[in-house]
Design a protein that fits this description.
single chain; alpha/beta; D-Maltodextrin-Binding Protein, domain 2; six-stranded mixed sheet; 19 helices; periplasm; plasmid
Length: 435
């Protein structure tokens, strides 16, 4: 099945093939038989409600642009990562696709398969560039060139079950430091409650802990130096200390039994089923725990609270330093001007506001913040507004090869299979191999 056929199947469109096309062309003129410009959109969205919102936006755009046919294709996350390199070289190459930014985007930009969108953003006096927050554009820029159209920003923070916290005698407002957090874990365990829902099977959910601890121990200066290969790199004492902090958490056995074989959706289900008191997750955790809970309902929104990853006493980082995604739409090199025009429409303030109201995202379009009405998402938006350093996910920012080692090391440190020193050395070795 061709890309166009896949897109038509997913969109549910009905195409009428006219057998007497040549005759009609003669009667009505060659222009009447000209084909629409097809815009191929590759996405990873699992939630049918969110896809339906996109379909609404596509319909409105097509009503205003009768000569454009926007076709959507879905790929599951891991399949997307596996198939994208081949897809970019095939006849079914999409016009644009989803990106996490960071080192992965940088590597993709060096393949020659992507379109530098700087000129498009700067046309008409920077009209499109000014549509987005400066941080969102800067985060998708390498060597002065913009490689993706901004879409949304994300935030990793702790979500907790208020009833289980009350049962365990834990108050979220008292968790200000990493030591406070470890004490809360101990209290929950003493009360017979699993403290944290862990998804060690996919590894990357555990890297959130190591990443945040590196940020809290070393601050931006240490991490930026390590990325540049300066100083002691990933063998900096602050980074090794972050590993020690993670090991200390692991010794408390904070996760549910068997967490090393649990996927992220399953971990969300553990939290949504009320079988763990906390989860360190994305800004849309409240919605996703419902989807993955056994009963399809999960915890009631009013029973879920959230708090920032705590500070580390004596660390150089700040509690206002945040970790999360900066996502955009990558445009392929032969994409049409219509594809870029649709992307500008998809991500304008009105549409980003509507998507924010649907709890799909934290917007990057200037003026769309007022669309964030979900209380937990609004808390995340407020925290991001006060961010002193917003860092993309480490496994994305450092590139695929180093990122895989970061994820592996994080799991092995927290599970007691590796020392923080050895973990830092493995990351440093992987980083040097990439240089």
């Amino acid at each position: 099945m061709t890309y166009m056929q896949k897109g038509i199947a997913l969109r549910g469109k009905r195409i009428a093939f006219v057998a007497a096309a040549a005759g009609i062309s003669v009667m009505l003129g060659a222009g009447a038989a000209s084909a629409k410009t097809v815009v191929k959109w590759l996405h990873l969205e699992l939630d049918p409600k969110f896809v339906a919102k996109w379909e609404e936006i596509v319909k409105k755009y097509e009503e205003q642009h009768a000569d454009v046919d926007v076709q959507m294709q879905f790929l599951e996350n891991e399949a997307f990562k596996a198939k994208l390199p081949t897809l970019l070289q095939s006849d079914d190459v999409p016009d644009f696709f989803y990106s996490w930014g960071g080192g992965v985007l940088k590597q993709q930009s060096e393949t020659g398969a992507l379109q530098d969108v700087t000129a498009a953003l700067d046309a008409d006096g920077g009209k499109l560039r000014n549509q987005y927050t400066p941080a969102s554009v800067n985060g998708l820029t390498f060597d002065g060139k913009v490689w993706a159209v901004p879409y949304k920003v994300g935030l990793v923070s702790f979500f907790y079950n208020k009833e289980l916290f009350a049962k365990g005698g834990v108050k979220a407002e008292d968790i200000k430091s990493w030591d406070n957090f470890l004490e809360a874990v101990k209290k929950l365990k003493d009360a017979g409650i699993v403290p944290i829902a862990g998804g060690g099977g996919e590894k990357w959910p555990i890297h959130f802990y190591w990443s945040y601890l590196v940020m809290r121990e070393g601050g931006q200066k240490v991490f930026d130096a390590a990325k540049k290969g300066e100083g002691e790199g990933f063998l900096d004492p602050a980074i090794i200390k972050a590993g020690d902090d993670l090991a200390a958490l692991g010794k408390l056995e904070p996760f549910q039994p068997g967490y090393l074989g649990v996927t992220w959706p399953q971990a969300l289900g553990v939290f949504g089923d009320g079988k763990a008191a906390m989860i360190l997750g994305f800004e849309n955790t409240e919605a996703n725990q419902r989807k993955n809970a056994g009963d399809g309902k999960g915890l009631a929104p009013e029973n879920i609270g959230r708090f920032a990853f705590p500070a580390v006493e004596g660390g150089a980082g700040k509690v206002t330093d945040t970790l999360g995604g900066l996502n955009g739409w990558v445009v392929t090199k032969n994409a049409s001007k219509e594809a870029l025009d649709f992307l500008a429409y998809l991500t304008n303030a009105d549409n980003e506001r509507d998507m924010a109201k649907a709890a799909m995202l934290l917007p990057v379009a200037v003026g769309a913040d007022d669309g964030v009405t979900n209380p937990l998402l609004a808390e995340s938006a407020k925290q991001l507004a006060g961010s002193t350093w917003h860092q993309n996910y480490f496994d994305q920012d450092l590139g695929a090869a180093v990122g895989r080692v970061v994820n592996d090391v994080s799991v092995e440190i927290v599970s007691g299979q590796m020392t923080s020193q050895d973990g830092a050395q493995q990351i440093q070795d992987a980083f040097e191999l990439e240089q």
